[in-house]
Amino acid sequence: MRHLGLFCFLVLAAGETAGAPSPDRTEPALLVVLSDTGSEREGLPVFKPAADGRRWLDVLERGFSGRVLRLYRLVQARRFGGEAALIEPAYLALTGNQGGFPRYGFFLEGTAKRGVAYIDLHRNSDLSGRFGATDQIFPHELMHVIVRQLAGEMPEGGANQVHAIGVRTDRSTAFNEGFAEAAQVLAADDPDAAPDTRALVADAKVARSVEANVVQYRRALMARWAPVPRIRMTFPLWFSQGEQVLRYHAVKANRFAFELPIRPRLLRGPDVYRAYLLENAVPGDLSGTRKPPGRMLTTEGVVAALFSRWVADQGIQSSYREESFYARFGVKPKDVPPLENAYLKLFHALERGKPQDAAALWRTYLSEFPQETTAVEAVLRSIGFDPHWEPPVEIWLANSAFKTGTTLFDQFRGLPREHTFDLNAASLADLMSIKGMTLATVEAIRREAPYTKLSDLQRVPAVNVALAEKFAGMEGAMHRLRAEAVEQTASLSLSRILMPYGYRAALWLVLSAVLAGLLYVRVRSIRWWRAILNGFSAALLGLGAAWASDAFGGAVSWLVPVAVCGLPGALWQLAWRKSAPSTGRVLAAWGLAALAPFLVTRAW
Q1: Model pLDDT, residue 19
Q2: pLDDT per residue over 461-477, tens digit each?
Q3: Which of 242, 285, 392, 568 sits a CA distance of 20 to 30 A from 69?
Q4: Among the listed residues 115, 125, 110, the one whose alpha carbon sits nearest the alpha carbon of residue 91
Q5: What are the backbone dihedrals phi and psi of residue 423, each rounded to the nearest 5 degrees, phi first?
Q6: CB–CB of 406/379 below 8 Å?
Q7: Strand partners, 112
Q8: Which residues contact 293 (CB under 8 A, 6 or more apart)?
Q9: How wide is the angle at C-alpha 410 spanned by C-alphas 182 and 232, nearest 5°?
């Protein structure tokens, strides 16, 4: 059965488009779509064939997703030596779970599939037509399965933060996620992608909208005064989709390989959390300074850029191996398209070297395919890596005195976590989060890096005894965290993450209402209860408008209270009291009161 994979690639080469299977169709399925029955058996979910599976197959058996399905079949042929009885198709389970996950083990009606991989996606997920749709997420998740099958389970890294495209985590997390996220770039660029997905690439409006939000967010974090700006109060709403857009545009441009300038005052204060958010949520400027290689290796956005360029490189694609190499996958060289050729060689290196980070993979690849050194080194340099750089040992520390949110969505630390970082890949915010640290000391520490062990810090004159003791304490705290071995996502609670948003909104609603009432009575004398009511109305309308829209440069927070309350009040005065001065005072009072929500939602 060595020719199972060959048949699949002959289909691809012939340009066959998946359709409804005919009764005499004998080739094995590449993908089986399942639906959740809602029951379990022996601790495993029970699935059944999805009634509307054809709708999913029509999208996922084409474009880059179809390529990955064919690659997956070849990987199975290599793993099981072409034994057809052992080779399983890819499985997609449509469930009620949000997000996308690679999972293992299920029952297909009455048949046990213990240890068999499947991709878990929400049954109502968009199939195509937006960044992060199923035709991009499915190949992403299937890449996770392939990496695990070839290289084994990725080890737990040292990061104590849920990963995201720009977050500095650790080498294994960044490698595992970045390698898979490269698939999302390729899925959008694939010439045979669904038309509405291909259209995304040229949709400048989507890119501009996300970039505008990123710029506003950056401005709000750097501002001296920004109590409750829209961009932070609605962060979970816009960043969820915005991150998917960044996974394409910012990754393609390799923006995550560049430092974002941080104002010194954000680093000198008692809490550097805003500087931390800037470093991890906002892509850098291409005109800026490249990150040190250690930080790039731990940033999945950089790893995604590396492998999306790697497999698209014509020199790597066109370098074919001897026939025996492809025979292990059950195909012949002539039946393997160039992009798939690039991936098969990476898969070979994954199986041979069992790498746990991107650098280990490229070292294994170069040892297996030395004739491609020039092409591979050119790709590495385009990202910012020195091909001859050897990653130093990781020295993980936990700063118990500095807490971050459990995820970037946790902007106000409803689920705080001790901050962990690798000394040899430390950022400004990482080191400045240590009490007693100065920018001069940080620069001295970074200048002397890398370190082979923590005690090497003794060679840095700026590290005094008190600071050295803090570093030793952080090393001990890291050992404690590793011993606890808390699963990152185990304690995630949406309600606890959103609760601080509600508290913050309520606090500033009260403060804005008080300020608005005081401003109102500066122009128009009314009873105290009416001042409270008018102040609350101005604050509620203004804050709601500001958080719902940034129209008119943010002036909507001032315009809405005036239009909803001030204008009708002025017209009533004019109609019933026939008093022009009273009409003007009403408008002026509401206009002044509406300044309260305007001021607290602006970044100054």
Answers
A1: 38
A2: 999 999 999 999 999 99
A3: 242
A4: 115
A5: -55, -35
A6: no
A7: 107
A8: 384, 385, 386, 389, 391
A9: 95
